[in-house]
Amino acid sequence: MKNTHNNSLNTMITPVSVSVHWSESGLFKSMVTYDFVTFESMAFEAAVSNLAGGYDKTRITVNLSDHSQYECRLDLGVGDNELGFADHCISIIEFNQRRLADNCTTLNNLNDQYISMIRTITKYEFDKSAVFDARTRMKEICEHNKKLQHQRDEALLESKKNIEAIKRADEKQFQDSLMIPQWAKSVIIATHTEYDEINSDPYADYYRSKTTRTIILAWSKHTRMLFSELRKACGNHSDLKFLADKNQSKEHRQNYSMGNGYFLTDKDFIREGWIVKKHIFSDSKNKASQVPLGELVAH
């Protein structure tokens, strides 16, 4: 806070205009002066734009009716943030009144700069009803937005439930149609994964992949993990024949705690690409339920 004001004056002072030095809000132009009413209206609009959280830092100089100036930074947003300059000043006064009441503190116990600021803004004359109306409007907007978000969340949840139900029905139909040989003790499955842009957060070094394709390549008579068998199975599908070549594929042996077992991938695989793996039937009486929905090549 910085102000140029003659404290000897006892008359009330009104803001005339506001010069914006810079702002994180796109509504304001830097180094432009707005009349006070216009600025307050724009500040409220900027605050509303942050309903999802956060605030727009805005550095201003307020030009007052006694030709003095008051410089400060506003944090335009909802909640504990500010709706404009008048709201900024009234919030400071309200906070100071609560602190004095709660702690029985007198102005003499406070920092000189803080005392000067309180005495200065106390002389500013605002339409307080407009500030309280703005707060009420913001509260109503927030409540309405909260209801809309709740409705969107419920609709999204219902949509996900419907998608999952359809997926389960398709999977059940697929599994019921499978003709798994009696001798099969495991199945070889290829899955293709891609980068999940929606659920990943590169800034937090958090990356996720999503399965975009599943192919049931072959049934196996045993449970041994043989890369030669995985490569042979890749020959059953035109998109995977290249993995049968040792020079174009990579063997992974993660047969340790928290590892992914034995599997085959394309040579440059890191997070995305083809993965070919054997899945052992843990329940010999219900093999079909252990086979995921996918393209069926095995016969």
Describe the protein in words:
- By secondary structure, this protein is of the alpha+beta class.
- It has 2 domains: 2-145, no CATH class; 178-296, no CATH class.
- The chain is 34% helix and 26% strand.
- The chain contains 5 helices and 11 strands; from the N terminus they run βββαββαααββαββββ.
- The protein has helices at 36-48, 85-103, 112-122, 128-177, 227-234; strands spanning 2-4, 15-23, 32-35, 56-64, 69-76, 186-195, 209-220, 249-254, 261-266, 273-280, 295-296.
- The strands form 2 sheets. Strands 8-9-10-6-7-11 form a 6-stranded mixed β-sheet, with helices on one face. It has a 5-stranded antiparallel β-sheet with strand order 1-5-4-2-3.
- Strand 8 and strand 9 (261-266) form a beta hairpin.
- The radius of gyration is 33 Å and the shape is elongated.
- The model has no long low-confidence stretch (mean pLDDT 89).
Short description:
The protein has 299 residues and is α+β, with helices and mostly antiparallel strands. The chain contains 5 helices and 11 strands. Strand 9 and strand 10 form a beta hairpin.
